[in-house]
Amino acid sequence: MDKLVIVALDFADDFECINFLNQFPKNQSLFLKIGLEMFCQYGYPFVKRLRERGYNIFLDLKLHDIPNTVKRTCQMIAKWDVQLLTIHASGGAEMIAAAKEGLSGSNTKLLAVTQLTSLGQVELSNELQVSLPSQDYVTRLAKLAFNNGADGVISSALEVPMIKEATSEEFLCVTPGIRPKSAQVGDQKRVATPSQARKLGSDAIVVGRPITQAKDEYNAYVNIEKEWSK
């Protein structure tokens, strides 16, 4: 997978989303993330509409259920021609393997979410009662995903070097929680700038509000891509 900037479509409705996309040249190659909010509101027809416009799709559904349910869901999604799909690594070995089996025959790559970037060490220890340090916990989940057929993981950029060392340089690390220096951190706790993520070895970055809520959205995207590509 080429080094990518993936735009998270953080919009209130599909009309606003299409207006945003219309700012870009028609031949612009874009990789777009559809999360739970937009998918629950607009469903597969929205995914299909964006694919017909030539965009690559990261379907960020974070599936987490019993293995058979996840497998059957992935079998349906395998027909949709999306490029990336997420599950939760904490669903366990059998669920990860079932998801990969469900996607067999398609070109959809399976990414396992390790630790949400909104969770820090305090939440991990006090709320979830995980005794491991955050980075060790993420690495363990990444190895679980790697050993059970996932193509990569979602993690913060800060954990990428350890994940690559524990798995493989070819194991994809897609990193949200990306904020250019001028942007506010918001509800993210483990963040990095685009250039930091690149240096740490991220294969792709996911950027939402710093682009979609900028005064000049198109230039915000261009500037982040320039910083990422340096």
TrEMBL record:
<dbReference type="GO" id="GO:0044205">
    <property type="term" value="P:'de novo' UMP biosynthetic process"/>
</dbReference>
<keyword id="KW-0665">Pyrimidine biosynthesis</keyword>
<feature type="domain" description="Orotidine 5'-phosphate decarboxylase">
    <location>
        <begin position="4"/>
        <end position="224"/>
    </location>
</feature>
<feature type="binding site">
    <location>
        <position position="188"/>
    </location>
    <ligand>
        <name>substrate</name>
    </ligand>
</feature>
<feature type="binding site">
    <location>
        <position position="208"/>
    </location>
    <ligand>
        <name>substrate</name>
    </ligand>
</feature>
<dbReference type="InterPro" id="IPR013785">
    <property type="entry name" value="Aldolase_TIM"/>
</dbReference>
<feature type="binding site">
    <location>
        <position position="117"/>
    </location>
    <ligand>
        <name>substrate</name>
    </ligand>
</feature>
<keyword id="KW-0210">Decarboxylase</keyword>
<feature type="active site" description="For OMPdecase activity">
    <location>
        <position position="60"/>
    </location>
</feature>
<protein>
    <recommendedName>
        <fullName>Orotidine 5'-phosphate decarboxylase</fullName>
        <ecNumber>4.1.1.23</ecNumber>
    </recommendedName>
</protein>
<dbReference type="InterPro" id="IPR047596">
    <property type="entry name" value="OMPdecase_bac"/>
</dbReference>
<dbReference type="InterPro" id="IPR001754">
    <property type="entry name" value="OMPdeCOase_dom"/>
</dbReference>
<feature type="binding site">
    <location>
        <position position="10"/>
    </location>
    <ligand>
        <name>substrate</name>
    </ligand>
</feature>
<feature type="active site" description="For OMPdecase activity">
    <location>
        <position position="65"/>
    </location>
</feature>
<dbReference type="InterPro" id="IPR011060">
    <property type="entry name" value="RibuloseP-bd_barrel"/>
</dbReference>
<feature type="active site" description="Proton donor">
    <location>
        <position position="62"/>
    </location>
</feature>
<comment type="pathway">
    <text>Pyrimidine metabolism; UMP biosynthesis via de novo pathway; UMP from orotate: step 2/2.</text>
</comment>
<feature type="binding site">
    <location>
        <begin position="60"/>
        <end position="69"/>
    </location>
    <ligand>
        <name>substrate</name>
    </ligand>
</feature>
<comment type="similarity">
    <text>Belongs to the OMP decarboxylase family. Type 1 subfamily.</text>
</comment>
<comment type="subunit">
    <text>Homodimer.</text>
</comment>
<dbReference type="InterPro" id="IPR018089">
    <property type="entry name" value="OMPdecase_AS"/>
</dbReference>
<comment type="function">
    <text>Catalyzes the decarboxylation of orotidine 5'-monophosphate (OMP) to uridine 5'-monophosphate (UMP).</text>
</comment>
<feature type="active site" description="For OMPdecase activity">
    <location>
        <position position="62"/>
    </location>
</feature>
<dbReference type="InterPro" id="IPR014732">
    <property type="entry name" value="OMPdecase"/>
</dbReference>
<dbReference type="GO" id="GO:0006207">
    <property type="term" value="P:'de novo' pyrimidine nucleobase biosynthetic process"/>
</dbReference>
<feature type="binding site">
    <location>
        <position position="33"/>
    </location>
    <ligand>
        <name>substrate</name>
    </ligand>
</feature>
<feature type="binding site">
    <location>
        <position position="179"/>
    </location>
    <ligand>
        <name>substrate</name>
    </ligand>
</feature>
<keyword id="KW-0456">Lyase</keyword>
<dbReference type="Pfam" id="PF00215">
    <property type="entry name" value="OMPdecase"/>
</dbReference>
<feature type="binding site">
    <location>
        <position position="209"/>
    </location>
    <ligand>
        <name>substrate</name>
    </ligand>
</feature>
<dbReference type="GO" id="GO:0005829">
    <property type="term" value="C:cytosol"/>
</dbReference>
<dbReference type="GO" id="GO:0004590">
    <property type="term" value="F:orotidine-5'-phosphate decarboxylase activity"/>
</dbReference>
